[in-house]
Specification:
8-stranded antiparallel beta sheet; Alpha-Beta Plaits; alpha+beta; 32% helix; Uridine Diphospho-n-acetylenolpyruvylglucosamine Reductase, domain 3; 6-stranded antiparallel beta sheet
Length: 463
């Protein structure tokens, strides 16, 4: 067990003081933003010359309590930092999002998901309490029993109600290793049938399943990846070097077995940003041998994306090839959507017919209890499947045409779409899907002067 020492508490208090001072330094009427050097958002935003909030010194773990299985964490702490602090105690957060640079505060205000979500829900459901800097410049402690309206509206608010400064979160026991079984299916419907049985029973072939996700490579090739905690020593695979994790899943029929350390399992997708490192050439054998291992990680790929967004490198290359080959420009389609499990076969079959993007990530989830979260109104006791797809398609004359089609189809199937990327909803549709009335009530209380952007402005208008 570690405790919050006097020095750690003093450093935290000092960092919070700097944050509050930076809020007061922003001129009245100016929009308040977080001065954050990195982001896991895929939507651009308008540039601003206003100085942002100083969040320096708010990226650490304050304490790990092995008795209560909780951790005190600062809002800008990355999951990489948190996992490094908890694993020596045989503990981990209930949900560890896939990328090392995702922060705890970001996963709570912007949602997160991973292969424990079918039994542990979403990251905000393991928050016991949190200190939030509101749009009004007040530091408020929110919990299910204190400022409960803010606590329940905070998930999916994307920093438009405030910024988390400190969070107390639940942890769960882990073992040193994870055994993997990759099951192959030749029809998506068969995969979903097995997925549903695992969700209903919590196991497969009589063995409890601790981790569960999947990959669709095409209509006739898809996989479920089952993970089981184990303490038994034995050889483990390494996908941080020349081998690529998602390629290791593929096989001709039946199932394939694998084994990873728990740490490597938690970060199995980070090395190649799922499969998106291919866009940078990092999966080509020659390039991969020259690309230093320490730079094969999501934070580096994010920097490359940032350079592209700043200098429009891909657009310039694309325009040259368009002029040469008379081909249309590309539309970026980077989305995660939640579809009820009973509708996911229909959605995937439609997607595979109409959107030329594979692979597709599948991650089942179910809320942990009876609580409803108004800004992302998934229903308690209902199984969903997160469907993730991250690429581009040929563009048409209509801005965001494919993204709009996907939004409409997700709505038709009673699903929900994450807001970390581009969205094209009308104000009315956005209100209906993302708790508009509940959001406005909380916004009026904790940000009465609208110092922070509104959710629609930030998520759709990209201000």
């Amino acid at each position: 067990m570690t405790a919050v020492t006097t020095d750690v508490q003093a450093a935290h208090t000092s960092a919070v003081g700097r944050l509050l001072d930076s809020y007061r330094d922003i001129p009245p009427g100016a929009t308040v933003r977080l001065a954050k050097p990195t982001s896991n958002l895929f939507r651009a935003r308008a540039s601003t010359k206003t100085k942002g909030l100083d969040a320096s010194g708010l990226g650490g773990v304050l304490a790990v309590d092995t008795g209560s299985r909780t951790a005190e964490v600062q809002g800008m702490c990355t999951y990489e930092t948190l996992v490094a602090a908890t694993l020596p105690f045989g503990l981990a957060p209930l949900v560890v999002p896939q990328l090392k640079t995702i922060t705890i505060g970001g996963a709570v205000t912007g949602l997160g998901i991973e292969s424990t979500s079918f039994r542990n829900g979403l990251p905000h459901e393991s928050v016991c309490e949190m200190d939030i800097l509101t749009g009004a410049g007040e530091l408020i402690t929110a919990s299910p029993d204190q400022c409960a309206d803010l606590f329940h509206a905070f998930p999916n608010s994307y920093g438009t109600l405030g910024y988390s400064v400190r969070l107390q979160i639940e942890l769960e026991p882990v073992r040193p290793f994870v055994k993997l079984r990759h099951l192959r299916f030749h029809r998506v419907a068969d995969l979903v049938d097995v997925l549903q049985r695992i969700l209903d029973t919590g196991g497969y072939d009589g063995v409890p399943v601790d981790y569960l996700d999947g990959v669709v490579f095409g209509p006739a090739e898809s996989y479920l990846c089952l993970g089981m905690k184990t303490g038994t020593d034995g050889p483990v695979s390494d996908y941080t070097g020349q081998r690529i994790f998602y390629r290791s899943i593929q096989h001709d029929s039946g199932e394939r077995h694998d084994r990873l350390t728990t740490q490597d399992y938690l970060w199995r997708w980070d090395t190649d940003w799922f499969w998106c490192s291919e866009a940078f050439g990092a999966q080509r054998p020659f390039v991969r041998r020259l690309w230093p291992r320490r730079y094969r990680r999501s934070s580096v790929y994010w920097k490359l994306v940032g350079l592209d967004q700043r200098f429009h490198i891909a657009d310039r290359i694309e325009r040259r090839s368009v002029l040469a080959a008379d081909q249309p420009l590309r539309e970026r389609v980077v989305q995660d959507v939640e579809v009820p499990v009973e509708r996911v076969v229909e959605f995937l079959e439609w997607f595979l017919r109409n959107v030329p993007i594979t692979p597709i990530w599948l991650c089942p989830l179910r809320l942990r209890g009876d609580t409803r979260w108004p800004l992302y109104p998934l229903l308690p006791h209902r199984n969903y499947v997160n469907v993730g797809f991250w690429s581009s398609v040929p563009a048409s004359g209509v801005t965001g045409r494919t993204n709009r089609l996907i939004e409409d189809k997700v709505d038709e199937f009673d699903g929900h779409k994450s807001l970390y990327s581009e969205s094209f909803y009308s104000p009315e549709d956005f209100d209906r899907q993302y708790g508009g009335e509940a959001y406005r009530k909380v916004k009026d209380v904790y940000d009465p002067d609208s110092r922070l952007l509104g959710l629609y402005a930030k998520a759709v208008q990209r201000q």
